[in-house]
């Protein structure tokens, strides 16, 4: 895991968060802004992929799902999508 988050963007902070609804939709947030909605098979796959993972691994899964965060082009105050 050390080589993946070289710039320590995910660190100990809750950069990414998610909320699951009753109908199994998953809303993913980056710094409090909604950046992705997963439904159906995608939400099932996401929930299975984070099951039993620690904080940093869960943050990494959400970063990969939301796109370009590994390239360093995320900007303060702008949405990811």
Describe this structure in words.
- By secondary structure, this protein is an alpha+beta fold.
- It is 28% helix and 20% strand.
- The chain has two helices and three strands.
- The protein has helices spanning 40-50, 55-66, and strands at residues 16-20, 26-30, 33-38.
- It has a three-stranded antiparallel sheet with strand order 1-2-3.
- A hairpin with a 5-residue loop joins strand 1 and strand 2 (26-30).
- The radius of gyration is 12 Å and the shape is globular.
- The termini are far apart.
- The mean pLDDT is 79.
Q: If you compute it from the alpha carbons, what radius of gyration comes out, rounded to the nearest whole angstrom?
A: 12 Å
Largest sheet, described in full?
Answer: 3 strands, antiparallel
| Helical content band | 25-40%
Q: Strands of the biggest beta sheet: in what spatial order?
A: 1-2-3
> Which class of secondary structure composition applies to the elements?
alpha+beta
Count of alpha and pi helical runs: 2
First-last Cα distance: 25 Å
Residue share in β-strands? 15-25%
Structure described in brief:
The protein has 81 residues and is α+β, with helices and mostly antiparallel strands. 28% of the residues lie in helices and 20% in strands.
Q: How are the secondary structure elements laid out?
A:
Layout: E1 16-20, E2 26-30, E3 33-38, H1 40-50, H2 55-66
Antiparallel strand pairs: 1-2, 2-3
């Amino acid at each position: 895991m050390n080589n993946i988050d070289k710039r320590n963007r995910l660190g100990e902070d809750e950069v990414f968060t998610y909320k699951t609804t009753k109908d199994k939709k998953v809303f993913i947030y980056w710094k409090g802004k909604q950046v992705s909605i997963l439904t159906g098979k995608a939400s099932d796959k996401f929930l299975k992929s984070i099951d039993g993972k620690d904080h940093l691994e869960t943050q990494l899964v959400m970063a990969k799902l939301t796109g370009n965060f590994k390239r360093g082009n995320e900007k303060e105050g702008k949405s990811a999508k």
